[in-house]
Design brief:
The complex is a heterodimer of chains A (262) and B (562). Chain A is an alpha/beta fold and 262 residues long. Chain A has eight helices and eleven strands. The chains are: A alpha/beta (262), B alpha/beta (562).
């Protein structure tokens, strides 16, 4: 993430959370947090507890955020935020917490005609391949809850549409034939079966390393009793090398889209 | 092959609940931002280092990055970091730890370091790596915090030991790991029993150990890598004393060890220039020195009295204030202070009173004015430190005091003041937890410690990575005193001041002269004649030179072989 991207990201984040941007200059900006954001980011539970008990006037913090120290004036005092800084990490976490489940309707603004919307289950997931090393893949899938069709890169496709959280006038939703619960199962199966086509050399190599080190361990304990420490070492090797794949949902939800949308 | 696949079902439960309750649903803009964030946080490759991207302010050196990459990619996260002193093993360990945390391979971490380095480690990991490492000071910390720093001595004791064994650590880091060379010790046994998914052992002196010590160290990391104890003993029994003599063993060890040498790093080290400045006492100072030399506080010839005489002599070479302070403490401790004062101290106190100038301080002032740049003055004594600060202030030169006992924050503040505002820093202690002052390259040894390591540490404050100038070292010694003896007979003989960073460290470790200071006190205090003292000093000097020659031979052999 470049500094300009971070600048842009942070402003969008704060604005989406109804925080007022007080000043926006090249290299830095100032934002007035809402009470909710203050509680989420400023880590001062005692202040808020005290305020609620005494009924005082809440005074959420103003943050000055520097995204480019070279361009920000020298007399500006604020927090320099860069990729990897703890504050950005914290905001990322807060962001994810606040954006797990969505329901959207496509707005075709198609005049007075009745407009049927088809239900989709959309999922954004992170697939991690892990042994003593790790890599991730981002996947976005959509399942048509009537036809059972599965669409890849679903998120990008929905982003290109005009969507709203409220059902538009003259639109109506079709009832799903596949229930969300079994929809989840279908997507799970789909991901698993596509994994079968992946190159798994990484896992085979890790397995070989694991077996090698196990053999060394056996040699080491040849001339002594295999006690508790032997078991500990063995378990440590399993944790170090054992290949596994984990699928974690980032976010997702229900999308009602017109027949030709995707 | 069959790989375990785990689909996290927690999200699904949430979804079904939302559907049942008809919301509330989240904001679309935030939803898109969250996807964006995840796309950035995804690490698409097994290879390569992510950590540097997250640490734009850290400027790691090429050999440090390479070490981190090698450990993660080829040593699978279990390694001995054995760089020579001063090459930044802590930076390497920090990079590796950060890499694993970013990739989500490591969450819970135990860092075992000498007690004196606990806060230094915490400070470095927090400030340089944004890793929330916490020194273990309260019992709940073991469970509540993810990255915990502790001394082995604390960790191995109950109730800590049992709590630690219950934690599931992903990474264990041990600093100064050469202390774990003996497998019979409690510390060794403690570290061995820990579950080590990933493990880093940091030591500057791995290869000069005897082969069985190497065996124990490697077995801690990767049991069986060097075979088992009986196989190993049979193979290397008696015939090989040193690892460098066995090519096969060396190759095996190198598979689990990173060892950068100063010479290989391509870093240009600046030179050290040493100037000895001999100083004449004033008549009054000389009288005080003579008087404390003859001073016998307890009318007996015990060892303790030789020691305290020497202490007073060394103090008299530094400042009258240092002598006064020690005598005053002596007075407080005696059972019959009035008598002691009348019979023993009164004459000394009047000699102290008679002293008008401090010859060394005058010389220091002259030098500071001439240098006209940042200067660090080291003294062994608090009293001299305070006097010097006062003295320089009279001459219009403001200075910053520095002591090992300062809290971290105060140390940093003092360093900052010195860097930005004041010309002079006066320090009493250089030890491990000190600060890095590579922006300064003039160092005055106002008096000399009797432990070469302490001297090396003093110099190491300024002569380190990042120093861009040659370092000027001025050694003050008063003519015709014990100080001159130490300087001329020992330090200059072994060319202590010209050495490169870390070299002395290696040599002294090898010689195993742990208590060099006590040895010197014995030589100076108990030699019956000056001739005897000279001979003993020369013996020590040649022993150190001898060890250096062996080391040189080994280095040549090592580079020739590999």
């Amino acid at each position: 993430m470049q500094q300009a991207e971070i600048h842009n990201y942070l402003q969008r984040y704060f604005q989406s959370n109804d925080c007022q941007i007080l000043e926006d200059k090249p290299g830095y900006f100032m934002v007035h947090l809402t009470i909710d954001q203050d509680k989420l980011l400023m880590n001062r539970p005692f202040y808020w507890h005290y305020l609620e008990k005494t009924g005082g006037e809440p005074n959420p913090a103003k943050l000055t955020i520097i995204t480019d120290p070279d361009r920000a004036p020298d007399d500006i005092k604020g927090e320099f935020i860069h990729f990897g800084s703890p504050r950005l990490r914290q905001i990322f976490e807060a962001n994810k917490q606040l954006a797990s489940y969505i329901r959207l309707f496509e707005d075709k603004s198609a005049g007075m005609t009745q407009n049927p919307l088809y239900p989709w289950l959309g999922l954004n997931v992170k697939v991690s391949f892990q042994c003593n090393r790790k890599k991730d893949v981002f996947l976005s899938l959509g399942l048509n809850l009537i036809s059972g069709q599965i669409q890849e890169e679903f998120h990008d496709k929905v982003t290109a549409l005009n969507v709203t959280p409220k059902i538009p006038d003259y639109s109506f939703t079709l009832s799903p034939l596949i229930m969300p619960k079994s929809g989840m199962l279908r997507l799970d199966r789909h991901i698993r079966s596509s994994l079968a086509f992946e190159d798994h050399t990484w896992a085979e190599e890790a397995y070989t390393r694991w077996q090698n080190d196990l053999q060394l361990l056996e040699t080491f304990y040849e001339d002594q009793e295999k006690g508790e420490s032997y078991e500990t070492e063995k378990e440590a090797l399993r944790e170090q090398y054992e290949p596994r794949i984990s699928i974690r949902v980032i976010n997702g939800g229900l999308f009602y889209l017109s027949e030709t949308a995707i | 092959m069959k790989i375990n696949v785990d689909f996290d079902s927690q999200w699904e439960e949430g979804l079904l609940q939302k559907i049942q309750n008809d919301g509330p649903w989240d904001n679309w803009e935030l939803f898109k931002l969250a996807v964006n964030v995840e796309k950035h946080m995804v690490v698409p490759d097994f290879e390569g280092l992510q950590a540097p991207k997250h640490l734009p302010q850290l400027k790691p050196l090429p050999h440090q990055l390479e070490a981190a990459r090698e450990v993660v990619e080829n040593m699978h996260g279990k390694a001995i970091l054995g760089d020579e002193v001063g090459l930044g093993k802590t930076i390497e360990a920090g990079l590796i730890l950060k890499e694993y945390m970013i990739r989500g391979l490591v969450k819970k971490v135990l860092i075992l370091v000498p007690a004196s380095l606990v806060s230094q480690w915490a400070y470095e990991l927090n400030s340089k790596f944004h890793i929330p490492a916490v020194p273990q000071r309260k019992e709940y910390v073991w469970e509540a915090c993810d990255v915990v720093i502790s001394s082995i001595d604390t960790a191995k004791k109950q109730p800590h030991r049992d709590i630690i064994y219950k934690q599931q650590y992903d990474l264990i880091i041990v600093d100064e790991a050469h202390k774990l060379k003996n497998n019979k010790t409690k510390n060794y046994e403690f570290v061995q029993s820990l579950k080590k998914k990933f493990c880093l052992l940091l030591t500057a002196t791995p290869i000069q150990n005897r082969v069985d010590e190497i065996f124990h160290l490697v077995s801690l990391l990767k049991p069986g890598h060097l075979g088992n104890a009986s196989l190993f003993a049979e193979k290397f029994k008696g015939k090989k004393r040193n690892m460098n003599e066995d090519q096969r063993l060396k190759e095996l060890v190198n598979k689990v060890m990173i060892r950068n040498r100063r010479a290989d790093t391509g870093i240009e080290w600046t030179k050290r220039h040493v100037e000895t400045i001999l100083i004449d006492f004033t008549e009054e100072e000389q009288q005080l020195y003579n008087a404390v030399s003859a001073f016998k506080p307890h009318n007996s010839d015990s060892i303790g009295s030789a020691f305290s005489t020497l202490t007073l002599q060394r103090e008299a070479c530094s400042s009258r204030e240092a002598v006064y302070y020690t005598l005053k403490k002596m007075l407080q401790k005696t059972e019959n202070p009035e008598v002691f004062y009348e019979t023993k101290l009164k004459p000394l106190f009047s000699l102290i009173d008679a002293i008008q100038v401090n010859s060394k301080a005058e010389k220091a002032l002259e030098l500071i004015k001439k240098i006209d740049d940042k200067v660090i003055i080291f003294t062994e004594y608090r009293a001299s430190q305070m006097y010097l600060q006062w003295f320089l202030k009279q001459e219009g030169i403001s200075s910053v005091p520095f002591r090992g006992g300062f809290k971290r924050g105060k140390k940093d503040w003092m360093k900052d003041l010195f860097e930005k505002q004041f010309q002079v820093l006066i320090a009493t202690e250089a030890g491990g937890e000190g600060i890095n002052l590579q922006f300064c390259h003039h160092l005055i040894n106002f008096d000399l410690p009797w432990n070469p390591m302490r001297l090396e540490q003093r110099i190491g404050r300024v002569h380190r990575l990042g120093q861009e100038h040659d370092v000027m070292i001025y050694n003050f010694a008063t003519k015709g005193t014990v100080e001159e003896h130490i300087l001329k007979l020992l330090y200059e003989k072994i060319q202590l001041f010209e050495r490169v960073v870390g070299e002395l460290d290696d040599i002294l470790t090898r010689l195993d002269i742990g208590k060099i200071e006590e040895y010197l006190v014995d030589v100076v205090g108990h030699s019956r004649t000056e001739g005897e003292m000279k001979i003993k000093m020369e013996n020590l000097a040649s022993m150190i030179s001898f060890a250096q020659d062996i080391k040189k031979g080994e280095m040549d052999a090592a580079s020739g072989n590999s």
